[in-house]
Amino acid sequence: MKRSLLLLVSVFMLLLSVTPVLHAQEEETITLTVLNYFDLTSPNASREIEEVWNEFERRHPNIKVIREDLFNEPFHHKTEAYAAAGTLPDIVYMWPGGRSTTLHTKKLVKDLTPFIDEVRDQFSEAALQPQAGGYLAMIPTTITASHAMYVNKGLLDELGLKIPETYEELVAMVPILKEKGLDVVLMGAQDDWVIQSCLFSMIVGRLVGDAKMDEIIAGKAKFTDPEFVGALEFYKRLYDDGVLSRKIMNITYGEVNGLFAAGMAPFLIDGDWKTGNFLTDPETGEALIPVDKQPNFVITVFPAIPGEIVHKSSSTVAGVGYGMNANIPAGSAKEKAAWELLKWLNSKEVQTLRLETAGTTPSRVDVTSDNLEPLVRERLAFYGKIEVGTYVLDNVLAGDVYGPLNVGLQEIGLGLATPMEVAERVQAAFDEWFAAQQQ
Questions:
Q1: In the chain, what is the straight-line distance between the N-terminal and C-terminal CA atoms, in Å?
Q2: In the predicted model, what is the mean pLDDT of the chain?
Q3: CB-neighbour burial class of residue 419 (10 A; exposed 0-12, middle 13-18, buried 19+)
């Protein structure tokens, strides 16, 4: 009896000692909010949700992720709204500059330099350079070319045409393609950022050059100087020569995918990321460009432009990534959980998935795969065709400056403004922005 009583007391004491531990474990469950840039209609969307986000929670049962998925302009508007209200989520998808300038310059996200030391050797050093705020606000998941020219080589072959090496050769195709009822170059330019980022940035790189742009950004030269106006005049010439049609401003960014895949034009200009929209959807087994047709497509750069000072270039930038809210307390359990999520989003597993599903150029040095569709391999080979990477304008200019430029480019295409009028408007916007920075 005495022994039984002692045993009961021992069990009771053991339970008392375990209970606080159990409560502590329950309290250690961390909730992370995430603002994610994600096209839920894209091929492999379900695979990303399952293999990236659901897999993270399976590996970290004590971390709950609440994700808000937005795409295109709604994402950017929501980011700015969160930033203005001081309610930024714990983890936010962001760019190294440009559309994410507010997050960088106002230091709304943490400097990840102290965190990265444990995994720095796993990444290309070029991907880990300071960003728009002068520090490492996020780890780029890729290196990105905002300009790529997609070519339906099969269609050109049927018409007895070759991929043009010069602008003059491209212009010579215009009457042939028009006679067949085809457009020359497609763009999904209803959103005004598309022309600036995917086409005009490349033109400026070729005709103006980064050195001159550095002078303009420093206030030592002007957008109204002959070089920049000349870039705008060449852009206008694309419409005058019939290479571009005004109707691209009525084509949505998603709609253009099907038009190009259906052979409505032999050329599409977009970012290299557009590749992912043509690949096989694992749920349906269907692709806008089927695997057996993909070898008929080529990804290259725009042909040589008259008077260019830079050759075979594309506008390039360190890719997107995820940042951590600066208000998360240093050394806290939430900070540790947030870093675990950031590491996972930049892991070999996740970057391999993105390589396989979109052909993104990994920022890690240890990512390879044998499971790549022909268009993914073509996207990787595309980087060997770029001899020079030049600025993406909305990455190096403030929103107050590239905003009027974006609108002006559409107005030039629609015949509503001249190149000089747009240059003057952009310079006025720059002067106002530059003056505010000096105060």
A1: 86
A2: 92
A3: buried
